[in-house]
Amino acid sequence: MPKNQNTFSSLTALRRRLANRAVHSGWRWMQRAGAVTAQTPGRLRFGAIGHGTRLAFPQGTVFGEPWIRLGDHCIIGEQVTLTAGMMPDLDLGAEPMLVLGNGVVIGRDSHVIADTRITIGDDTFCGPGVYITSTNHSYDDPHQPVGKQWPRSAPVEIGPGCWLGTGAVVLPGARLGRNVVVAAGAVVRGEVPDHAVVAGAPARIVRRWEPETGWQPPLRTPAPVPIPEDMTPEQLRGLAALAEAEADAAAGQPAG
């Protein structure tokens, strides 16, 4: 290849690398600058947004925010829909419509649609793509398109400490107790008691904890050993390095 062509190719590659770095740097800046917090709410005026709560950029559809209350230290992922009311600019009265407790995590691409009250308890974690709604389409009239028929609504209550797996759906009227696990892709309706695991569509209880008998059916894996409260990050890293060295020694490989 002639020398001038080599020079041209090198310059083109350099420009691409620089453009790539600029795009990624710019996007990271937009993510930081576009995040919504109590100190930087942007155009959004929530009824409450607690200390340490953050809505990642880009946000999804958000409206009816005066009737949405977010607790402290919540994490709302990218492209999450949070809505109160059936459409923007409605007067929904004095009471909040959508309430998130402290420490709630909602994974990216999730949707929380509150046409009537939805409450999500403290420290509930939702994986990506979770759908929670207090409204469902009705199909009473066989002669009208379903989308044009007036929907039915019922309050939704999700207790504290729950885990909703990827793609889980919570339908109107559902009431989940404390520390409920909803398997990925499950469709939940009705009441779910405390300390239950539900799976399927419609979801059914597949495991439950009782004070007298523990988990039934029994768990197939041993419970993880809790981390002592006074352990420092440095000690944790040291333990991880020690465990890795022991695993290498067991496999007959030199450590490091």
Automatic annotation (TrEMBL):
It comes from the Bacteria. One of its GO terms (molecular function) is O-acyltransferase activity. Pfam families: Hexapep. Keywords: Acyltransferase, Repeat, Transferase. One of its GO terms (cellular component) is cytosol. SUPFAM superfamilies: Trimeric LpxA-like enzymes. Belongs to the transferase hexapeptide repeat family. This is Acyltransferase. The lineage of its organism: Bacteria, Bacillati, Actinomycetota, Actinomycetes, Kitasatosporales.
